[in-house]
Amino acid sequence: MEEAARLLEAMGAETRVFNPRGLPLADAEDASHPKVQELRELAEWSEGMVWCSPERHGAMTGIMKTQIDWIPLSMGAVRPTQGKTLAVMQVCGGSQSFNAVNQLRVLGRWMRMVTIPNQSSVPKAFMEFDDNDRMKPSAYYDRIVDVMEELVKFTLLVRDRSDYLTDRYSERKESAEELSKRVNQRSI
User: 2-183: which CATH architecture?
Assistant: First the structure.
């Protein structure tokens, strides 16, 4: 994540990284918990997100899923993720896999995010970083650059068009039906 943030900043993006330390399990605390509030504020603030999880036991980690579970599909009339761009990445302790990124991609679509086509999976991640915790030059690093570059491009394409791209007939229809009931008309 730190490498992704550095790259995004070099590309002109403003970044903020959420540290999940202290985040309670979903629904184990009230949503007023400070870490939940921090996460939700960042979700609202962002135009795009990078989700990165280690793969553990063939899946994303529980803390990654907890973070996603704390981001509501709607907060009042606001959908904090709808129409925002998303890049997904994973690191593996062993051989390369795509289980975590595939799960993250499904969740991003479920949350109505514009999930970019590119993704990154770094195998044997313990071998890919130097003594200063910086990623060594490699094809895996180049792939992360590609993913961050694509995230920036998609974010710029979606910027100021999110409302149009996420406008749904079923939601407009539902709103019209509710309005019709409220004003006691048979049709609008």
Answer: 3-Layer(aba) Sandwich (3.40)
